[in-house]
Amino acid sequence: MLRTSTLLCSVAIVALASGLGLNAYAADPIKVGIVTPLSGSYAPIGKQVRWGAELAVKEINAAGGVNGRPFELLFEDEEANPPVAVRKSEKLLQQDKVDLLTGTVNSGSTLAVGQVAERNNRILVTTVSYAPSITGAQCNPNVFRVNANAFMQSNALTSWLTKNVSGKRYFFIGPDYEMGRSTVSAFQDDIKRLGGTDVGSAYPPLGAKDFTTYVGQIRAARPDVIMTATAGNDTVRLLTQLKEYGILSNKLTLAGAAGAVTQENIGAMGGAGEGFLSAAGYSIDIDTPANKKFVTAFKKEFQSDPDLFAADTYGLFYLFKQAIEKAGGTEEQKLRAAMEDASWETPQGTKKMRKGDHQAIVDMVVVKVNGSDFQTVGKVPGAEAVGPDKCEKF
Amino acid sequence: MLQPSPPRAGQAPPPKDAARPTVGERLVRILYPSHSSATPLRWLALAMLALAVVFPLLGGPFYTRLAIESFLLGAVALSVDILLGYAGLLSLGQAAYFGLAAYVSALMYLHVTQSFWLVALTAVAVVAVFSLVLGAVAIRAKGVYFALITFGAAEILSKIAHNTRAIGGSDGLIGIPVPSIPLLPGVAIDLHNNVAFYYAVLCVLVLIYLGTRRILDTGFGAVLRAIRDNSDRVPYLGYNAFWYKLFAYIMAAQVAAFGGLIYPLLRGFVAPHLFGFEVSTKAVVMSLVGGVGTLLGPLAGSVIVTFLESLVGSYTERHLLVLGVIFIVFVLFLPDGLIGLARRLTAARGKAGP
Amino acid sequence: MEELLGYLHVVVLPQVVDALIIGVALALVALGLTMIFGLLDVINLAHGDLYMLGGYAAFTLLGWGAGYWSALVLVPILVGIVGWGLEELGIRPLLPRADRAIVTLLLTFGVSLILRDVAQVVWGTETYAVAAPFTGIASFADVFVPTYRIFVFGVGVAAIFATWWLLYRTRIGAVLRATAVDPPMVASFGIPIRWVYGFTFLYGCGLAGLAGVLLGPIYAVFPTMGHDFLVMAFAVVIVGGMGSVIGAVVAALLLAQVQGLASLWIPPVWAETLVYGVMLLVLVARPAGLFNRLGEA
C-alpha cells in the first residue's frame, strides 16, 4: 500500500516524461529508506516526515531527478520501538538495497539505526531527533542531523526569553527519561548563565496523565516563566490541566521545546497553549519565497499545514540531491565527504553542515502560538545558536 | 493443546504401590524416558530442520539475520510452552529473562570483558538467581494469578531499565561489538559472518529443543503434565508439585535467556523494550500459533509470526490488526495451533500414533 | 509543628484531594473489570480499550453537535453494547472450556490489539480534545479544585453507589451474585445464564465507557489512552480482590493515594513502579486480595 503508491507515482512520472520526450529515467533510481513511526503515539510526527519526503521527491523527480536518476522512497513503520526500527532498517539496507536512510524519530531508534547504517556502510540522516548526544557523546561518522538539536533550541529560546520577558523566575518541567532530562538541563544551564533564577523543576513520568501533583509545587514557586520539554499528549494534558487549575494567566509566560506544541497537538489544547513560545529551526510563517512556495505546495498536496518535521525532511532531499551530484553517486566515503561540507537551500534559508559533528547549523526562529497559528517573534542566527562541537569520535 | 490431552499410548502404567518413590526409582524415571514421541511429530521436526539448514543458502543476509532473530524469539516462545503446555502455567513475563540476559550480555561486553563464555556464564547465573527467587514466589499462586505476577515482574524490570540512566535509560545501550566466539584453541565462530552466526544459533537451538524434549519426555515431564491436569491430586501420588513446577520454571527461564544472551550480538544494542509486554505476549502468540505443548510449535510459530510481520509491515501499518485477528482466529478455532493441526491431519490419515 | 501543619495543608492536602478524584475514576474502570472477573472468570485485557472507545465516542458525538450531557448518557450505553457484543461473539464460545481463564485472557488480548488499530484507522492518530461542559475553580480551605473535577467525582460516586445498589438491593443483583457463586444452581431456577453473562459485560464495559466520557476533558483522547488506566486498574483489582466490588473501590482509592503521595517524596517514575510492587506483594502474600469475592461472605 505504501510502496505501491510510490511505485505508481514513479511509473506515472516515467510515462509522462517519456511522453514529453524526456528520456531521463533510463537510469536506476536512488532509493531512500524512510523508517519512521507510522503507528503508535509518534505516528503524527511520522506522518509529517512522510509528507515532507513525498513532496520533495515529487518536485525533484519532476525537475529531472538527481543527475537524471529519480528518487524512490521506501517506507517502513518503526513504531517508535528501537528493536523494530533496527529490524526494518536492516531490511531496507540489505534486502531493498537503499542508498540512504532517514526518518527515525526518537533518539533511541536513531542511535540504534545509526549503528546499523554504519555496519552496512550507508548513511543515516535524522530530521527529527533532537537529543544532543546523537551529534555529541554518541556521534557516529555515518549519522547526520539536519534539524536543530535541543541545545540549539535552548540557546535560542533562552536568549530571547531573557531579553524579552521581564520576570526572572523560571520553572522547568521535563518528562522523566533521557530526552526530557537532557532538554531540561540544557534549559537550566542556559537560564542560569543568562541571569535567570531556577525556582524549581518537576519530572513527571513519560506519558503521565495527571500533572496535578505538580500544581502545588508550581504555585508555591511563583514562576514568571514555565519551560516544558513534554511532547504530544503529555503537553496537551499538562497545559489543559494547568489551565484547569488556574495557573495560566497573562502574567505567566509559557515556553518550551519545539516538539512540545506542534501542528498535531495544538487542536487538542483548547486555547491552553495560547502564547506558548518555542525556538525551532522552522516556522510556517517564515517570510521567504522558498518557504511560501513550500507551504503552498504542501497544503495543496496534503490539505494540511506543514510543521518543522515536514520542513526539515523536505529540505533534506535537496541536501541529498546536491551531495549525490557532487559525489557522483552514493558511495559511502564520497557521499559523506560531500555532505560534510555542504551548504544547501531549504524553505527556512541556507543550512550549513558542520563537519566536526555532522550537525547542521540552522537559523533559529522564536515562535509564539497565536490561536491555532504559529507566529515568528524573533530570530537567532545559526552560528550563535549552534553551540560547541562535542563530538570526539571522528 | 491448552486442553488436557488424552494419555499417550505405550506409557508404562503407574506403580501399583503408590507410596513415595525412592531416590533410585526417581533417578531411573528421569534417565530412561517412558515412551517415544509420536511419529508424525518427528517427521515434521525433521522437515523443519531440513528447511532451516537450507535456508541461509537461499535467503540472503537480511532474511538470514531475520531468521536468527526469529530463533532467538523462538527460544522465548519455547520457554512459554514449557510452562504452559507442560506445567499448565501461563507466564506473561518471559521477556523478563530475555531482557535480563540481554542487558547482562550488553553491560558485560561494554564494560567488563570481551570473552563470550564469561558473559554467557554470568547471564546464566543472574537469570538462575532471578528465576529461583521469582519462581519460588510466583508458583505458589494459582493459574491466572501466576500470569499476573510474571507480568508484573517483567513490567517492573522494564521500568527499572527505563528509569536508570546508568544502564542506558530509555535510549538503551548501543555499541555492543560483534564478537568471535572461541570454541576450541584455534577454532572460533566469527559472528560477522551471517551464515556462521545462523548455523551456530540453529545448532544451539536444536540442542536446546532436544534437551528440553528429553527432559520432558521422562517421568519428570509426566509429573508436570499431571500437575497441569489436576494439581490437587498430585500430592496424593507422592509428589511435591512445588519443586517440579519450580524446576520447570528455572529451566524455562534459562531457555528464554539464551535468546536474550545472543540478541545484543545480533542487533548491537539493547533497550527497555526487550523486557516489554510486547515481547512476552508475542512469545505466547507464537506458542499458540505453532501449537502449545508440542515444543516444536513455538519454534515454528516464531518463524511464521516473525516473517509474517515483516511481510505485512511492508504493505500496511495495520500490523496490530492483522496480528490481533490471526491471534483470535487461532484462539477460537485452532487452539492446538498449526503443529496440532498437522498432527490431527496425519493421525486422521491413519498413521501411527494417537 | 506549625511548619508541619503548613506542609500538610499546602502540599499534602491538595495531593490527597486530587488522588481522591483520580481514585474514583479509577474505581469506575476497575469495577467493570472486577465484576467481569467475579462472574465469568474472565480477565478482560480489552477493558482499557473500551475506556478509550468511550473517550472517542464522546469526541465524535460532540463533533456531531450533541451536547456533553447527552454524550454522558449515550456513550456508556454504546460502549456497553460493544462489550456485550464482545461477550456474545468471543467470550461465550470459550466459556465451556476447562482452561477458560487463560483462553479468554488471550482472546481479549487479541481484541485489544484490534480495537487499538481500529481506533487509529477511524479517528486517526492525533490527540483530540473533548470540551468540558463547564470550567471554573472552586476553592475551600486554600485548596483549589476545578469544578469539573468535582463534577467527575460526584458522578463517579453516584455510579459506584448505583452499582452497589444494583448488586445488593435489587433482584438482578441477587441473581448476579448468585451466579458468581454457583451458576448451575441459578440456571436450575430457570434464569437464563447467558443473559446474566451478557448483562455483566454490558454493565461493566458501560462503566468503562462512562469513565471515558468523564475523563475525556481532563486527559484528552488518543489511541493509546487505554493503556494509561488498564495497568493501574489491574493493580486495583488484584489488591482489592478479584471479583470484589468493595475491594475495587477501596483499592482504587488506596492505590491512587499511594501513587500520589509517593510522588511527593520519590521521583514520580518510581511511584509507578511502587504501585506495581504493591500489586506483586499482594499477589504473593494474599493472592485473593484484601476483600472477598463477590457473593462470598
Q: What name is given to the CATH topology of chain C?
A: ABC transporter involved in vitamin B12 uptake, BtuC
Q: How many H/I helical runs of chain B? A: 13
Query: What string gives the helices and strands of chain B in order?
Result: HHHHHHEEEHHHEHHHH
Summarize the main sheet of chain C: 2 strands, antiparallel
The CATH architecture term of chain B is Orthogonal Bundle
The figure for the number of domains of chain B is 1
Q: Which strand order do you get reading across the main beta sheet of chain C? A: 1-2
Largest interface between protein chains, with number of residues from each side: B-C, 38 and 38 residues
The appropriate CATH architecture of chain C is: Orthogonal Bundle
Q: What's the N-to-C terminus distance of chain B?
A: 14 Å
- Number of discrete helical segments of chain C: 11
Which strand order does the major sheet of chain B show?
Answer: 1-4
Helix content of chain B: 55-70%
What pattern of helices and strands is seen along the backbone of chain C?
Answer: HHHHEEHHHHHHH
Q: What general outline of chain B do the C-alpha atoms trace? A: globular
CATH class of chain C: Mainly Alpha
Structural key phrases:
heterotrimer, A: 394 residues, alpha/beta, Rossmann fold, B: 354 residues, mainly alpha, ABC transporter involved in vitamin B12 uptake, BtuC, two-stranded antiparallel ribbon, 4 strands
